[in-house]
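Entry 14. Structure prediction run on the chain below.
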Amino acid sequence: MENRTISNNKTEKKGIEILKNNFQNFLVPTKEQKIHILNLMGINRKRFIRTFDGLLLKVKTFEDIRSHKDFEFIEVKNTKKSLENFPNGFFFGFTMNEECLLRVFDNFSLVFVNTETEKFTHPIKFDEYDELIHNKRIQYQINFKK
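Output returned:
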């Protein structure tokens, strides 16, 4: 399990690097910046701080953000798998919190990245995401008390 986690973390970092290299306005926010953005949006920071990986800035710097119109939340989903008709066939995990923000906020998007081919999608909104779904299942992740 630990090797899979390490591999997934490397894939996630590579996907984020691909976006940084292709979008000058892509920012990976610090914890403090995430808290600021969630507070600005009126979103519970304890519950949602891990629901996005980056921001696409529509202003020059993070400090210039004044409202939701100044940025776009980006949740990055990565794969190494060769997909003939990318992103069709993409398999990924998605939390209820991530889907909630995607459904509710017009400035929340998904970007799918193939870290092997370095292909990526444009930012995808809820309606397009919903149309792409072939099969969706709910899986609970359970931790027992110590």
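DSSP finds five helices and five strands in the chain.
Filed with the rest of this week's runs.
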